[in-house]
Amino acid sequence: METNDEMTLEEAKEKIAYLENLLKDRNQTTYKTIFDQDENAVVVFDLESGLFIDCNAKLTSVLGFTKEQLLTLSVIDISPKYQPNGQPSEVLAFQYIEDGFKFGTVKFDWVHINHLGEEIFCEVQLYNYIQEDGKRFAKGVIQKKDQILELQKKLDEKEKLLSKVTKTLPAIIYIQDLATDEFLYLNNSIESFLGFEVEPILTYEFLIKHILHPDDLDLINTHAKKMLDEKNTDIYVLDFRVFHKNGNVHWFRVWETNFSFNKDGIPTEVLGVAQDITNTKRIELDLKKQNELSEEIRRISKSGVWEWTTQSNLMFWTPDLYHLLKVNPNQFNPTIQSFIQFFSETSKSIFIEALNKAEKEFSPFDLELEIAGDPNFWVRVQGKSIHSETDKNIIIGSIEDIDDTRKKRIALLENEARFHQVANQTGLIIYDYDIKHDKITWDGAIQSVLGYDIEEFNHLDIEGWLNLIHPDDRMFTKELLADAIGTRSPYHAFYRIRRKDNIYIPIEDRGTFINSDIFTDPRQVGVLENVSAKFEFESKLQSKEERFRNFYNFASEAIIITEGDLIIDANLAFRKLFGYESIQNVYVNEIIADPLWNGIYNKDKSFSLEGIKKDGTLIPIQVNKKEIEEGKFILSFIDLTLINEAESIKVALKEIQEKNNLIINQKYELEKTIDELKLTQSQLIQNEKMASLGQLIAGIAHEINNPMGAIQASSQLILENIKNQILNQDKIIQLLSTIKTEKRELYFQWMVSSFIKRNHLHGSEARRVKKSIRERLENLGCNDSEYIAEEVVDLGVQDCLPMIEQLCHDEDFLEFFNYGMVYIHTTQNLNSILESIQRVSKILYALKNFSHFDKYGEKTMTDLISNIETVLILYNSQIKSGIEVIREYPSSQVFLYCYPDDLIQVWTNLIFNAIQAMSYKGILSVSIKETEVDENRKKWIQVSIEDNGCGIKAEIKDKIFEPFFTTKELGEGSGLGLDIVKRVVLKHEGRIEVESQPGKTIFTILLPIPEDTTH
């Protein structure tokens, strides 16, 4: 490299300043021209139409057209043909345009025609863009080829000038092309600084591979991105490391500026000056070493940091430590003695011992200690002893709040303990198999399942485990494991394993891989389960299946098994009834005579129709259907040939009579229950704990009497209907025998459909439908249209009118209709009786639970929701007239080990008090949930009963649980209700709390859940 020994530093600086001004002038020249002032010819045109939209003055001077002329022309009008880069291809021309959209810009050669028709060779650079309305446009920057050559000549001259200037500077000077990352210029100073020749370094790839330090590449890239993003000509400074050719590391400092920009203002070239600052950096590192103590403190610091000089007893704290220990740095002077006082008594002695060892033996320490406070919390204290340059003994350390992480760690250990306990209780053996090191870690119910101690079993490797497997199962099991390991797939095997007492038991082994990546070390975790009970169950199930098969084959009833409508099996009785020797490819529709048969899926569980024997004979059959699994059914057939239609009606009447007798018996039983209830009332009134029953009896009697009245009325109507049917049945049977089978079946179909389809209408809607039916029947020529319309709508069977319309022309239709309506009316009365019985049964069930009070009972597992619902049912008569009950229960049953009869007394007193407090109008809320109410994490069942009544006055709130204290009038209450509540709760070792204000009172009962209780 050429140098000028006579040039001073000041002269060098002046030349650098001159160079910077020269670069700024060039940059300003680049940016000063836009559109009309641009030194290049610029045109904008519509890519769809090809028409010019705008152009600058430079283009008009290049082509000789006026701007007005150009705006009437298209691209092809001023071109001899499509010829990008001299290639006559229209497809290629449009491909260049699409590349412009893909890459932002595209450059190619193009021949234009000027106003004289002369060809002008140009270079075109397109910038494509899309407007918000979706139109596609292009901006073309056009340069004549002779202009490009002139610019290249000017550039060469500038480069010679730069080369001449930079030869005299003691620095590396370079110009880098940002598009290609290549160096357009690099002076020879690189050889003296780093020992490399200039030529191979002209690529950025060589620079990365051989010169730039890899740890500084991210820093350099961030620096380059910042210059590109900020798009200005400021000077950017960066320090980074490079490698000398001899392998030594040097520090460089560069000053860079954006040297050139494109038309959009984006930098395209960077000018830089670099100097070797290795010596300066070494001085900086030496200065850093002088602050070694601070660096050491900062290195180990995780939260608050402290420093204690033992000779002077001086102590230093960082601000974080003051904050952690909640002291004001302006009011607190830290010493080792005051520092120790922050710890709890147990932790103080541990900390003092660690400090002594650190001072005398230079032993570092890492402790978990408890800080005394409100509340106490745990910290991690670290420390070590170091020697300063003045030979003073200094102990430095850090203190970190680990209270939350410690709690989580303890919780994790507790969860692990619970997991092991669950494994033991469920009889599962758990394993973790490290395949690479052939080590198995065992846990779980090893003792109870196999008889081995866990220490014995943990000595087993994979071969030891295989040796315990029954010889007949060993090879197959080993192969399954090898396949699972080879494919990293789940492992599942059944085999027999030898217990410690040499007895083999069946085991189900299920394993999976924690990491299924075949390139990493595999680990398999899994469980062994004793399936002896499962095998025994399957054996019993097989015996049951054999018994079923015997019953199935020798049953007198015809039975088939189907998949959909395909018969896949049939017993001997079926083959005999239908005349089939083989059932291969026989479908259900082949043995059914119903032309409207639409598949077994659409049939009820039991239905009657005509069947077809193999010889074509029709037989009446009753079919019973049961789905045994999805799409698979069992059908049984009963031959109804010997049962005639008249006999079926008599049987039906007999069944109605029997049901009526049953209803009458139930009525007598209910009346007897009421008498017993009254007797129970007199007994309970004598017992203070059951006095609340007196409040219920009136409402319960009313609740029972209402459905009883409905039962009595319906029973009388049924008796009258049965008498009428018996009187008319012979006539109806005779009439049925004279009509065609189709009419007879339609008549029965109408009756059956009317049993099912009931839609009672009222008011104007009923009148409208009656009128419509009457008009339809009159149009059909029915003589009794008004009577029939009234009867049909009153019984709510108007939906079956189409069948009546087919029958109403018959001469004896009215006889059939009246008989059928009596039959339908009877079934509706039966349904009314059944609904009433269900209501009474529900009340009696609740009353039974309430009245059978076991005074000397023992604790039992009780559903708490059902316990409370018993009381709510009994108070239904008081609640339903004006009280809204809001229930907030868990989604599943809540079981509690308790005295259920005692708890019923609690809910009775609290609920009735709430009803009275609201004057029988308001909102009653009952909620049940599980909660934790103390620091021991003990679990409780919380029952809250809330009302929006008058509330409890503050001055009497503390007295309400005292015996004989009452706010009711004389004779209305004894004052023992809440006393009983309190005693029952205490008997359960529970708590009772009350909150009250006008408009809101909440009684909260907390009942403990024993730890050994399963919910």
Automatic annotation (TrEMBL):
Name of the top EC class for this enzyme: transferase
Keywords: Coiled coil, Kinase, Phosphoprotein, Transferase
Residue ranges the record marks as coiled coil: 141-168
Upper classification of the organism: Bacteria, Pseudomonadati, Spirochaetota, Spirochaetia, Leptospirales
Record's catalysed reaction(s): ATP + protein L-histidine = ADP + protein N-phospho-L-histidine
Name of the protein this chain belongs to: histidine kinase
An example molecular function term from Gene Ontology annotations: phosphorelay sensor kinase activity
UniProt domain Histidine kinase: residue ranges: 830-1011
NCBIfam families: sensory_box
Short name of one Pfam family: PAS_3
EC number(s) per entry: 2.7.13.3
InterPro entries, per database record: HATPase_C_sf (IPR036890), HATPase_dom (IPR003594), His_kinase_dom (IPR005467), HisK_dim/P_dom (IPR003661), HisK_dim/P_sf (IPR036097), PAS (IPR000014), PAS-assoc_C (IPR000700), PAS-like_dom_sf (IPR035965)
Annotated PAS domain residues: 27-71, 158-231, 415-488
PANTHER family the record matches: PAC DOMAIN-CONTAINING PROTEIN, PHYTOCHROME-LIKE PROTEIN CPH1
Domain PAC: 236-289
